[in-house]
Amino acid sequence: MKTSIGLLATAISVLTLGNVAAEESDQLLMDALSAAPVSLRDKVTVMDWDNNMLQEGSNQYVCFPTPPTLQGTAPMCLDGPWQKWAEAWVNKNNHTNEAMGIAYMLAGDGGASNIDPYAEGETADNQWVQEGPHLMVIVPDQSILDSLPTDPYNGGPYVMWKGTDFAHIMVPVTME
After folding, report:
1. Does the CA dihedral 110-112-117-121 come out positive or negative?
2. CB distance 150 to 114 below 8 Å
3. Contact residues for 169 (Cβ-Cβ < 8 A; gap 6+)
4. Which residues is 46 bridged to in the sheet?
5. Cβ(80)–Cβ(44) below 8 Å
6. What pTM, to 2 d.p., does this model score?
7. Per-residue pLDDT tens over the stretch 32-74
8. What's the distance, Cα to Cα, between the start and end of the chain in Å?
9. Which residue in 30, 51, 111, 174 has its CB near the most CB atoms, within 10 A?
10. 3 state DSSP class of 78
């Protein structure tokens, strides 16, 4: 009898942990998919930050939930060129874009410096900006960026992190 109760308690614990893990995976999946356009949501691969696949996709986009190190919202969907960009950025490696890339952050983000790719918080001189829904574009020819402003309050597309390996075009898409 004692063994049966112990087995039952173990089974309940495993089921409870499984339900919590499934619920957490569902929350991560929903967060990640909030970055993508509706037309892509059933086609993208979704990974968590431990490289666990939450959804297998059929195109080149990989969506990630808000990084666990950030407060607020910052899920993103990255195409192939952006995935290479992100790997270099996360590892603080040099990077050169080999192709044009498009990333989606349609849930917006919690904020970033417009001039310092590695700023961890707002300071008086790092031009912190919190962006609503937006696209991000990388290009292989950085001179193309010279035709765009760097002012995030200009009312349209602007260049973030200009003059770094991680410079990219921010395209706000708020409909309000």
Report:
1. negative
2. yes
3. 136, 137, 138, 139, 145, 148, 157, 158, 159, 160
4. 55, 63
5. no
6. 0.84
7. 999 999 999 999 999 998 889 999 999 999 999 998 877 788 9
8. 64
9. 111
10. strand
